[in-house]
């Protein structure tokens, strides 16, 4: 037909089938392989493309983190095999983590991420946000820069573990008392530290300063000092490092939360 029409026939190639990790057929009956589902879960298009090509053949070496330009330049048809390509979707979060980090490190793409996350924050906490500063671009961008390489999707920042970034937490005097009897002293020391540091907070310096701060207590171990600081800032006992929390929140917000601890201990 090509010759009859005077056309140059293309070079045809046969690509192996894309299968589930166990070798079974990918099917729409699985429900979770629709593009809409991946988009809803915060999966980036380049991450989905990367994992799809990574599990197949056509490349001299397989590595994570390739974008479309690299895939095109490295593709070699002679490397295509006849073996089925097994897709392990359990690895997708790791692919997404890598590509999300690349976006955060790109100024233009990071700006778009900030806008997207701001909208998600407003939807997740429509009435709970007390300080509108958390919606400012500089604040959200700082959070992204500090968490890049740790989070696998933007939606992760909307989970309860990270709610302290957007909403001021609550905690009780009983929780404080269970950690230390020196909460008033520790709160005062933190407020003094923040006042001295002003706007120059950095994770590295704060880690050193907090170790020195803990040594000024008489009966509270370093571990419990850190637990109290994390409780005050997040209402939680797990999460990023205390120093990173402080840098993320900004000096003014850290001071506000430790003033609350100070008032709580005064009333007891």
If you had to describe this structure to a student in words, what would you say it looks like?
Residues 1-92 form the Glutamyl/glutaminyl-tRNA synthetase class Ib catalytic domain. This protein is mainly alpha-helical and 268 residues long. It is built from twelve helices and two strands. It has a two-stranded parallel sheet.
Based on CA atoms alone, the radius of gyration comes out at 25 Å
Strand content: under 5%
Strands, count: 2
Strand count, sense and barrel status of the largest sheet are: 2 strands, parallel
Number of domains: 3
Question: What strand order characterises the main sheet?
Answer: 1-2
Distance between the termini: 90 Å
User: Level of helix content?
Assistant: 40-55%
GO molecular function: ATP binding; glutamate-tRNA ligase activity; tRNA binding
Domain Glutamyl/glutaminyl-tRNA synthetase class Ib catalytic: 1-92
Domain Aminoacyl-tRNA synthetase class I anticodon-binding: 126-261
Pfam families: Anticodon_2, tRNA-synt_1c
Brief rundown of the structure:
This protein is mainly α and 268 residues long. Helices cover 50% and strands 2% of the residues. Helix 2 (45-54) crosses helix 4 (92-104).
């Amino acid at each position: 037909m090509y010759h009859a029409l005077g056309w140059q026939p293309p070079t045809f190639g046969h690509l192996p089938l894309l299968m589930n990790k166990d070798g079974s057929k990918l099917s729409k009956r699985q429900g979770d392989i629709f593009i809409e589902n991946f988009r809803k879960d915060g999966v980036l298009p380049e991450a989905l493309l990367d994992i799809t090509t990574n599990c197949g053949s056509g490349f001299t070496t397989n590595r994570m983190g390739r974008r479309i330009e690299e895939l095109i330049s490295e593709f070699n048809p002679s490397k295509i095999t006849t073996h089925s390509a097994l897709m392990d979707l359990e690895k997708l979060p790791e692919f997404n983590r890598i590509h999300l980090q690349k976006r955060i490190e790109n100024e233009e793409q990071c700006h778009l991420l900030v806008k997207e996350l701001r909208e998600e924050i407003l939807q997740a906490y429509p009435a709970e946000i007390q300080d509108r500063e958390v919606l400012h671009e500089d604040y959200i961008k700082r959070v992204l820069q500090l968490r890049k390489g740790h989070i696998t999707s933007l939606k992760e920042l909307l989970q309860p573990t990270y709610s302290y970034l957007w909403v001021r937490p609550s905690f009780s005097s009983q929780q404080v008392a269970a950690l230390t009897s020196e909460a008033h002293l520790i709160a005062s020391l933190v407020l003094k530290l923040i006042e001295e540091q002003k706007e120059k907070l950095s994770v590295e310096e704060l880690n050193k300063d907090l170790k020195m701060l803990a040594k000024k207590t008489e009966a509270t171990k370093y571990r419990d000092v850190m637990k109290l600081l994390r409780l005050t800032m997040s209402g939680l006992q797990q999460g990023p490092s205390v120093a990173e929390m402080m840098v993320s929140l900004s000096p003014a917000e850290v001071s506000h939360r430790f003033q609350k601890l100070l008032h709580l201990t005064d009333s007891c």
